[in-house]
């Protein structure tokens, strides 16, 4: 930490001898720590948020271009992005999040040479995972029909799904490479790559969808090219400019790979249960009367929610980096204060965006559709969207803490109970049995998110951060190559 941060305005020390914060027991110390942690978090978070916005913008802009082709086309691409894409994306992102935990803690512990090994292990694991998940894309049409979706929408979605398989395969290299860079706070380059990709993607969509009149095929082709362009740019940067963490391809990537898989699976289950939860709203809406309007109105709301959610996914990544780095450095109080500051600021942002949604709920559907019926349906969902935005401002941050600390398995159990044993059945009862339709489905699932958020905040409050440091040290000994039984990593994770 820089020297000017060692004391506050009254000359009192902010740091102990070990580099950790002293206890914040007065207003001045709290204010100074709050300001320091705010700067540290946003220096990491802003470029990540910008990059995620750009990458989400690729999805969103694609939906906007396709949406103006027709309602059926919008429903088809919405099903692929919200059901098939979310299912596969969630699992791949989860499998890649083990890299985030280990790279962040290794970087904090000074084991920079291990970052490239962890990334390569993740490449191998995610490549195999992507191949295993390919049937979901190949057989998307019959899967969607089995889930009760309309035949014409499912067939069109199935054709689009096959065309975007190259985009899906790029994730096996994209996610681990991003985590490698984020763990070292090398986030500005990710932001620039995302910006250039978004600009080029808009140009390709205009050319392929409208000028060449290729419709959904043109949208899929632009999607594939943009995704692989992002991945290739990140890989080139790692190989050419990251000499400390990247020392070349190594057979060590295959050593102890099963234990790495186990940690990856815990991450995957945790994140998948969150991603698939909101995906299930779209699936259930497809069984309601006037399914096209139900699916399209929800998809538009989810798209708007996604733009706000990308901010908090970026904050999620930033707090994960902060927590994992500080735990790796053996600074429990710094990790704790970083979490508290980030959670408080995220809640304020959520309230701010709730106000924007409530103010503009009669207008934002115009961006996606010319249908007056669809615009009215979206407006009715505005209050639920606003509440979701507040809850989604806190929940991703706590998930980021879980990734940074290696708590994925615990959060997975909580997600199962809150989402699938409580929220989803409640949404089904309100939507179908109480005849509340889309509002009932979404309202019940909001209750599940609310319960999960309260439980995670309680666990966060009760966390023993000194014990987390001890577990991190044990984990680094294992993954740093010391002679400790590999099975211990599963217990500590």
Automatic annotation (TrEMBL):
Location relative to the cell: Membrane
Main location per the UniProt record: membrane
Keywords, comma-separated and alphabetical: Membrane, Transmembrane, Transmembrane helix
The UniProt record lists the keyword Transmembrane: yes
Domain of life (superkingdom): Eukaryota
GO MF entry, a single one: xenobiotic transmembrane transporter activity
Example GO BP: xenobiotic detoxification by transmembrane export across the plasma membrane
Single GO cellular component term: membrane
Membrane-spanning residues: 41-66, 72-93, 123-144, 156-175, 187-209, 221-242, 263-286, 306-325, 337-358, 378-398, 410-430, 442-461
Membrane topology label: Multi-pass membrane protein
Family to which the UniProt record says this protein belongs: Belongs to the multi antimicrobial extrusion (MATE) (TC 2.A.66.1) family.
NCBIfam families to which the protein is assigned, alphabetical: matE
Designated name of the protein: Protein DETOXIFICATION
Organism lineage string: Eukaryota, Viridiplantae, Streptophyta, Embryophyta, Tracheophyta
């Amino acid at each position: 930490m820089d020297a000017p941060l060692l004391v506050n305005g009254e000359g009192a020390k902010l740091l102990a001898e070990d580099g950790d914060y002293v206890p914040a027991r007065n207003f001045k110390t709290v204010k100074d720590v709050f300001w320091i942690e705010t700067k540290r978090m946003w220096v990491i978070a802003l470029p990540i948020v910008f990059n995620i916005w750009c990458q989400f913008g690729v999805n969103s802009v694609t939906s906007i271009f396709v949406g103006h082709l027709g309602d059926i086309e919008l429903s088809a691409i919405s099903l692929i992005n919200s059901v098939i894409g979310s299912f596969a994306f969630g699992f791949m992102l989860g499998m890649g999040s083990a890299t985030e935990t280990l790279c962040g803690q290794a970087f904090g512990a000074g084991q920079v040479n291990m970052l490239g090994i962890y990334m390569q292990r993740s490449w191998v694991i995610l490549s195999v995972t992507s191949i295993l998940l390919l049937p979901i894309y190949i057989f998307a049409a019959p899967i969607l029909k089995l889930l009760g979706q309309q035949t014409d929408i499912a067939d069109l979605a199935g054709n689009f799904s096959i065309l975007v398989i190259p985009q899906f395969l790029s994730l096996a290299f994209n996610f681990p490479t991003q985590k490698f860079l984020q763990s070292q706070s090398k986030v500005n380059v990710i932001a620039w790559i995302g910006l250039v990709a978004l600009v080029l993607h808009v140009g390709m969509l205009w050319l392929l969808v409208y000028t060449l009149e290729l419709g959904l095929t043109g949208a899929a082709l632009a999607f594939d090219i943009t995704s692989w362009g992002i991945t290739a740019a990140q890989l080139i940067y790692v190989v050419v400019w990251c000499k400390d963490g990247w020392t070349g391809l190594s057979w060590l990537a295959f050593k102890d790979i099963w234990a790495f898989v186990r940690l990856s699976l815990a991450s995957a289950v945790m994140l998948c249960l969150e991603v698939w939860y909101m995906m299930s709203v779209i699936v259930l809406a497809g069984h309601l009367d006037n399914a096209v309007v139900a699916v399209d109105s929800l998809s538009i709301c989810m798209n708007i929610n996604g733009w706000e959610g990308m901010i908090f996914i970026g904050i999620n990544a930033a707090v994960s980096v902060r927590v994992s780095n500080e735990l790796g450095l053996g600074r429990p109080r710094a990790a704790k204060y970083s979490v508290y500051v980030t959670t408080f600021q995220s809640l304020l942002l959520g309230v701010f965006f709730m106000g924007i949604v409530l103010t503009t709920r009669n207008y934002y559907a115009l961006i996606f559709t010319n249908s007056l019926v669809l615009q009215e349906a979206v407006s009715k969902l505005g209050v639920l969207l606003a509440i979701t935005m507040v809850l989604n401002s806190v929940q991703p941050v706590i998930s980021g803490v879980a990734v940074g600390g290696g708590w994925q398995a615990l959060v997975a159990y909580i997600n199962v109970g809150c989402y699938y044993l409580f929220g989803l059945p409640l949404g089904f009862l309100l939507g179908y049995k109480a005849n509340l339709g889309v509002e009932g489905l979404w309202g019940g699932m909001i209750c599940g998110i609310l319960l999960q958020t309260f439980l995670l905040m309680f666990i966060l409050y009760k966390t023993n951060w000194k014990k987390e440091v001890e577990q991190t040290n044990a984990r680094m000994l294992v993954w740093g190559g010391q002679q400790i039984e590999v099975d211990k990593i599963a217990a500590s994770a």
